C-alpha cells in the first residue's frame, strides 16, 4: 500500500477514503464560469446543481488528502473518464466520497491506472454518482534521454 506518498505509487486495491465533503455554491459558480457552463440550473438556482464534470475535483481532493506528496517523480496523465449520475447533487449537500484503485495494467508499453470513485449522500448513504478515471502513468525513459543527449 502506497497511501501517503505519491499518486503514481498507488497500487491496485488501495482505498482512498471515504471522506465527508460539502461542495459550496461558490465553488460551483466559479467552476461553471471557468468552463463556460451558463445553464440556469448551475448558475441561477438555489442551491445550484453540481455539474457532472465537477467529479474531477473530488478525485483531486482524494489524491491530495491521501497522497500529500503530490504527483511525484512519475506523474500521471489524465486519459479518459466515465461518470454515471444516479441523482442530482446540489451544492451544500453533505457527501461521502471514496475511491478504489481497481486496476493497474500495461498496454502497448504504457502503464495505466483505473480509479473507481463513488459519491454518496452522507445523510442517507444512497449512491449519487459513480466515476471511473483512467490515467497513464508517465515514467522517465532513461534510454530515450540518453539517445537525445
How is this fold's topology laid out?
Elements: E1 15-22, H1 25-34, H2 40-43, H3 55-66, E2 76-85, E3 94-107, E4 110-121, E5 127-137, H4 142-148
Write down how many β-strands occur, each being a DSSP E stretch of 2 or more residues.
5
CATH-assigned fold name: Thiol Ester Dehydrase, Chain A
For the record, the CATH architecture stands as Roll
Physical arrangement of strands within the biggest beta sheet = 1-3-4-5-2
Low-confidence stretches: none
Task: Please tally the helical runs, counting DSSP H or I stretches of 4 or more residues.
Answer: 4
Please give the radius of gyration in angstroms. Answer: 17 Å
Q: CATH superfamily, called what?
A: Hotdog Thioesterase
CATH class: Alpha Beta
Largest sheet: 5 strands, antiparallel
Kindly state the percentage of residues in helix.
Answer: 10-25%
Protein structure class: alpha+beta
Summarize this, please?
It contains four helices and five strands; from the N terminus they run E-H-H-H-E-E-E-E-H.
Can you put this structure into words, describing what you see?
The protein is α+β, with helices and mostly antiparallel strands and 149 residues long. The protein has a single domain, classed as Thiol Ester Dehydrase, Chain A (Roll), CATH 3.10.129.10. 22% of the residues lie in helices and 37% in strands. It has four helices and five strands. A five-stranded antiparallel β-sheet has the order 1-3-4-5-2. Strand 3 (94-107) and strand 4 form a beta hairpin. It is globular and about 45 Å long. It starts with 14 loop residues before the first strand and ends with a helix. The model has no long low-confidence stretch (mean pLDDT 86).
